[in-house]
Amino acid sequence: VERMAADHAALVRGLERGSAKWIGLAGVALGFAFLAKMLEGLMVVPAIGLAYLIAAPIPWRRRLLHLVGAAVAFAVSAGWFVLLTLLWPASSRPYIAGSTDNNFMNLVLGYNGFGRVLGHNHRAFGTAPAVGASAGARIRLGSPFGMRNQVQGAPRLFSGEFGFEIGWLLPAALLAVVLVIVLRGRAPRTDLVRAGAVLFGGWLLVDALVLSFMHTQIPPYYCMSLVAAMAGMFAIGIHETWHHRSSRLGRYGLAAMLLVTGVWSWWILGRNAGWWPPLRWTILVV
User: Fold this and answer.
1) What number is the average pLDDT over the span 73-96?
2) Residue 196's closest CA among 236, 234, 228, 163?
3) pTM of the predicted model as reported, rounded to 2 decimal places
4) Residue 267: partners with Cβ closer than 8 Å, 6 or more residues away
5) For the chain, what is the radius of gyration of the CA atoms?
6) How far is residue 202's CA from residue 177's CA, in Å, rounded to a whole number?
7) Which run of H or E residues covers position 128?
8) 140 phi and psi, to 5 degrees?
9) How many CA atoms lie within 13 A of 92 on its CB side?
10) What is the pLDDT confidence band of residue 74, given thresholds at 50, 70 and 90?
11) Per-residue model confidence as pLDDT tens digits over 124-158
12) For 45, 76, 155, 158, which has the most beta carbons within 10 A of its beta carbon?
């Protein structure tokens, strides 16, 4: 989260000024994020690139050139460690755990990358063949890390433990993406508020889709990767709809975000009605 915060701070400076230096620093921060969380640290890259291409106050060729420079900065800030692991003799360094051939890129693209997304080489928590049953029969097992009741696909982030952790605010954040882009529709290309919606909304959508459609059952704490994007998008949405409260879209949009959050939170808390029963009704009433 700290690496992503640094990356976004640099991007905001770059968007304000069309600065090669600041967008380059964003690339450096992305390199550190990659070394910390590998491909997960790069989920925000499409949103960063799109926001800069749309809103930076410079000609489009310079925007493209700056993004190429940021990519080079990323390659340098992340590549030194990758290169070190490739060049250092395997006999005199620790084995790269999780890889199948003691290769860092195998870990990045395999176990911690596409292998995790596609379900290769990962234990499928939650189901196992029933003894004496047909190959298609399954029985439910206890899963660690709150990994029960997961459904691969769009419902995943709204069901099970994910619903309690992140799903309660997700509908409002997604609605905020649409509302902000529509409300800022007549703003100039360089409008920073709309750029913020592209940045946080794009990050939210990419990360949410990846988490939703991963083939393995995943620990709910993975939803932390969505928190900054969702909180930022929700905050921008609340601010913009309040700012445009004199219009019907502003008023109805703000009411919709708050009502959706309250009603949906009430519904989710009803799945665990024994925990603080008055809370869900308090949320609904307020």
Assistant:
1) 88
2) 236
3) 0.82
4) none
5) 22
6) 9
7) strand 127-128
8) -85, 130
9) 4
10) very high
11) 444 444 444 443 333 333 444 456 667 788 889 99
12) 45
pLDDT (tens digit per residue) in 191-218? 999 999 999 999 999 999 999 988 778 8
Nearest to 218 by CA among 157, 168, 269: 157
**Which residues, 6+ apart, have CB-to-CB distance to 156 below 8 Å?**
150, 162, 211, 212
Q: What is the dihedral of CA 82, 87, 89, 90, to 10 degrees?
A: 30
CB neighbours (10 Å) of residue 251? 14
Structure-token pair, residue 31: 């390199």
Alpha helix locations (H) across the chain?
Answer: 2-17, 20-37, 45-55, 60-87, 104-106, 115-118, 160-162, 170-183, 192-213, 224-243, 248-269, 277-285
- Let me know: does 16 contact 193? Beta carbons within 8 Å: no
CA distances (Å), 136 to each of 128, 132, 190, in order?
Answer: 10, 11, 55
Residues 226-240, buried b or exposed e (16+ Cβ, 10 A)? bbbbbebbbebbbeb
CA nearest to 29, candidates 47, 2, 50, 55? 2
Q: What is the pLDDT of residues 2-52, one digit of tens each?
A: 555 666 678 878 888 888 999 999 999 999 998 888 888 889 999 999 999
